[in-house]
Amino acid sequence: MQERRPYQDWLPITKKELQYHGWEELDVVLISGDAYVDHPSFGPAAIGRIIQSEGLRVGIIPQPNWQDDLRDFKKFGAPKLFFGVTAGCMDSMVNHYTAGKRKRSTDSYTPGGQAGFRPDYATTVYSKILKELFPDVPVVLGGIEASLRRVTHYDYWEDKLFPTILEDSGADMLVYGMGEQPLRDMIGLLKKGVPFESLKTIPQTAFLQSKHEDLPKNKNWEDIALSSHEKCLKDKLAYASNFKVVEVESNKLIARRITQDVGENTLVINPPYKTMTEKEMDQSFDLPYTRLPHPKYDKRGVIPAYDMIKFSINMHRGCFGGCSFCTISAHQGKFIASRSQESIMKEVEAVTEHPEFKGYISDLGGPSANMYKMKGIDEAICEKCVSPSCIHPVICSNLDTTHKPLTDIYKEVDKHPKVKKAFVGSGIRYDLLVSDYNKQLQSNDAEEYMEQVITRHVSGRLKVAPEHTADDTLRIMRKPSFKYFHKFKESYDRIQAKHGMNQPLIPYFISSHPGCKEEDMANLAAETKELGFQLEQVQDFTPTPMTVATVIYYAGVHPYTLKPTFAPKTKKEKQDQHRFFFWYKPENRQWVKDKLINAGKRDLLERLTGDGGRRSNNKKEHSSKKEVPNWLKEKRRSRKKR
Fold this sequence. Notes:
This protein is 36% helix and 13% strand. The chain has 2 domains: 7-206, Rossmann fold (3-Layer(aba) Sandwich); 278-609, pyruvate-formate lyase- activating enzyme, CATH 3.80.30. Strand 23 (505-511), helix 20 and strand 24 (538-540) form a beta-alpha-beta unit. The protein contains 26 helices and 24 strands. 46% of the residues are buried. The strands form 8 sheets. It has a 9-stranded mixed β-sheet, with helices on both faces. The chain has a 3-stranded parallel β-sheet with strand order 22-23-24. A two-stranded antiparallel ribbon has the order 2-13.
């Protein structure tokens, strides 16, 4: 049995633990909706370690009780510099509710998977409590919940527009996106004695100021004003137009400062930093994490989210896909920030030293596993680009899509004496590997990567995400035509056959996405059935802040064209679309048959079930009698027995 590590290896979460560090007070206190796991994949741990690396004293209050006398919030007293607040690794509403708005019974970021340890709208709740208890101490918001709610946004759970989260929470500042760069600059200025209220020109931050104040001076920034929050409440087109500006500016290398009036205040959103360099990424991931949950959770059960990633390696951030339903680029940016091979191998070594490691790395990846080190060939071209996606509607000719650095890392990890297998668990962007779509793809490079992945790094099944089969829906999704998935599958099957392997592809699909009609779902069911798939990995579209699809869902128009765009909205519409995924289940067969016959789609019915709904000479088949329900059959049988 491994000896327990000393408490001072973790950042303190109780008053008593301050003594292990020899501290009497703290410079920064972090409040988090997640349990404290000291691992680079958990935001509060990463932020805490960065603050510590800057020579400051930092503590974490994980999952404080917001319903009692608030003693958790008071236990460290007032920090010297500021409180940092995050809902955790997920938006608290996505964490709490399904796409159908049903309350979830578990929470993956809590020991034992127990629900109920964080409030709805956790960032706002925590911030309000802190401003009431410590009105003179600045509160800084961060994490995905705050990041994606930085401007007027649609809230699916309340079904209305909310203003910037700064307005509702009362916080003093918001850090959007990945927080390392703004945090280091903020701390550097505070250490020099600059007052917090003067931190108005740090990139990638947002704050509220009076409408009557002049904007802070920065000669390098241009400004662009959005329609006010009040106008958005009255005019959905104004809200949709705002979104386009925010998305474009968030994904530019040289962006403008954004402003928006909210009541008597003006929201100011400073432009983002340039993408983190390899050195900056390494600096963040190489900090002295224990890679373990805090010991206080030892008797409360495993933390499911940690259990899932404890033997995984995150090699890069960002995604240039720009999918309409996804928040990755809105939070992490479209430009890829990659770690060095040395830093990755150092983490591989750390994983192999974990007391429970059995030789298997669960994931070598990132948001899309095969975007590692991909970037623009000529950065000057990237500086002028305003497209939210580098690969839709076509792959940019300035994008270097070589997979060679990734293949080299896979091979290097394979050489490690303590690693039996390293899997790619986060899924790959298959369209980058299809020459018909990726015109600059080097066939030898792609073939080597595919061979390496298929023969060495698939854990039984490989996940890919075509998301739909209908071209009209895919265009709205910013995904390629499904015909390219067919091409990818051909290559995948060919390489598998060459090596005598049988590892199925697991495709992910979304129902009730804007643009998708019932007929599209029926076509999806038929086409995937003909490919031999019985769908399991499926989901219903959930509108989340800061996505194109959410704007369409609420406003009824596409934000880039302002043209009306259909979106399934009612509970019945969404449920009906989802049922087509499971056409093969006995309880759905008659429903699917009735739907397609009534819609005049007998050809689809024929493709799905081999029954086009035609009348037959067979009396049993021709019978117009309704099917006898099971309860009535059972009742008749019991009568016969008597």
